[in-house]
Amino acid sequence: MTNIAVFGAAGNIGSRIAAEAASRGHQVTAVARDASRITDRPAGLRVVEGHVFDDGTLSDVLKDQDAVVLALGGAGASGQPDLYVRAGEKLVAALRALGGAAPRLLVVGGAGSLEAAPGVRVMDDPGFPEAYKPEAGAAGRALDFYRTVTDVRWTFLSPAKVIAPGDRTGTYRTGTERPVEDANGESRISTEDYAVAMIDEIENPRYVGQRFTVGY
């Protein structure tokens, strides 16, 4: 059993990560700005109303954790292009203060920073939707920040190009810098199987200090 905290646990991806962790018997602390949005509260799941920028929340949540998942969303839509970087800086600083007792940090990342070709990011491809570029750029800058961090055990998980609610199959393939594609050249993953991959990485670390990606 592992103690896992999930920031953004009311969101589309964060809620599935929290649910997947709880279903495996882990002790989950689900953190959300509006705790009432977390309606599914299985045994082993504690709900905390707060956020990553609140020192009181961090003090309460980070102690005695084995892993912390940062699952924020909407950087582009919210008009806060620096949200992901600021959240990363805040959480990394808090983890540094814990020293050797600090839990692992796992970050829900974006697909835009993956490489469509060597040296060419997915978000820089002419066909990449303009509406998604602000958030993709924000997530890419966050990844750049994490890659400067050497004293906190971080992992950045980029989804496939297309991620949406669907079935939990429990199967997926992994990659590092290039999107994972199926036999038809499609890059996709369900949010449910993305959550499976995240908890698998917590249970069996393979990508500490790295970015990895998943797809079918």
Could you please describe the fold and organization of this structure?
The chain is of the alpha/beta class and 216 residues long. It has one domain (3-215): Rossmann fold (3-Layer(aba) Sandwich), CATH 3.40.50.720. The protein contains five helices and twelve strands. It has an eight-stranded mixed beta sheet, with helices on both faces. It has a two-stranded antiparallel ribbon with strand order 6-7. A two-stranded parallel ribbon has the order 9-11. The model has no long low-confidence stretch (mean pLDDT 93).
Which terms would index this structure?
single chain; 216 residues; alpha/beta; Rossmann fold; eight-stranded mixed beta sheet; two-stranded antiparallel sheet; 5 helices; 29% helix
Helix fraction bin = 25-40%
Low-confidence stretches: none
Say how many strands there are: 12
* Quaternary structure state of the chains depicted: single chain
Total of domains? 1
Structural class: alpha/beta
Summarize the topology:
Blueprint: E1 3-7, H1 12-23, E2 27-32, E3 45-49, H2 55-62, E4 67-70, H3 83-98, E5 104-108, E6 115-117, E7 120-121, H4 133-146, E8 154-158, E9 162-164, E10 173-175, E11 188-190, H5 191-203, E12 210-215
Parallel strand pairs: 1-2, 1-4, 2-3, 4-5, 5-8, 8-12, 9-11
Antiparallel strand pairs: 6-7, 10-12
Helix pairs in contact: 1-5, 3-4
Short summary:
The chain is an alpha/beta fold and 216 residues long.
